[in-house]
Amino acid sequence: MAREAAEHRQLVSSWDRQERRARDLIELDELAHGDPDLERQLAEERAAISNELRARELDLLFTDPFASHSAVVTLSVGQGGVEAQDWVEMLMRMYLKWAEHKHFQTEIIETSPGEEAGLKSATFIVRGPRAYGLLRSEHGVHRLVRISPFDQNHRRHTSFALVEVMPELESSDESAVVLSPQDLRIDTYRSTGAGGQHVNKTDSAVRITHLPTGIVVTCQNERSQMKNRETAMKVLKARLFQRQQQEAAAQLDQIRGQVMPAEFGSQIRNYVLQPYTLVKDVRTGLEVGNTQAVLDGEIDPFIESWLRWRLSQSATVASNSKQPR
Question: Is 0.85 topped by the overall pTM?
Fold first, then answer.
C-alpha cells in the first residue's frame, strides 16, 4: 500500500511538472517572434515536452490491477533441441539487459542448464515501477530463425521458447491463492552450479510440486534452505494465480463464443537473423530491423506497441458488446 501511494504521488508530481513546463512554453512563444535564439529554444522545449507527454501517455495504458507489481518471468525451452536451449539463454540475457537499462532490480531464482549449451529453463524476478505491467507484453512463444552455430553444415534452424510472465503477489494479494499442505510435495536436494563448496555439501535447494495441477517450482539461488523454500512458495503462488486468471479468461471467451488458439505453438514474435535481419511482433505488426539492439534489451518499442494494441482490442470488444444482438 505504501509503495502504491508513493508511485501515485510521483505520478501526480510528474503531471504537475508537465503543466508548469507547458505554461512556460506559452510565455516563451509570446516572446520568441523574430528572435532566432528564442525560436530555437522554443522548438527544443516543444520537442522535449512532446516526448515527455508520450511517455506519460503510457501511464494511461496500464489497466491491469497488478500492473505495478514485480514480475516473475519463467522461460522454457520449446522445439529446436540444443538450438532452442541456446535461445532460452539469449532471451534471458535480453530481459536482464532490458531491466539493467531501466535500473530495475533482478533476482535469478532458478536455472536449468542444457546438455550441450544454453538453458532448458530459467526463472527470475524483475522489480521496478510497473515491471509486470510492462513485461506482460512478452508472455507467449518467441520464435528464432538463424543459421545454427551448432550445425556443422551451417543450415538454417527454427527454435521456439515459451516466456511466461506472472505478477509477484504481495502479502495483501496472497489470500487469492489458497494452498493446502496435503496438495504439496516438498523435496530438497543439493544445489548445482556456481556457489562454492557450500552448494555441494548441503541440501539447500528446494523443489515444490503442486499435486493437483502438476506445477513444479524449484529454487536454489540462496544458501539457506528456508529462504529457498520461501521464494519457491512465492513463485508457486504467482503461477497458480496466473492459472486462475487464464481459466477465468477462457471461461469468458467461451461465453462470448470466441475460440482462442493454443498458447504454445503460436508465436507472438519472430526473430529472424538469417538470411535477413528482422524482429516482427505478430500481434501488433511492429517491425525492427536492428535485431542486435533488440537482443541487447531494446524492447521498449514492442512493449509500447503492445500496450496500445491491447487498449484498442479492449475498446473493440467493449464496443461490440454494446451492439444489439
Answer: no
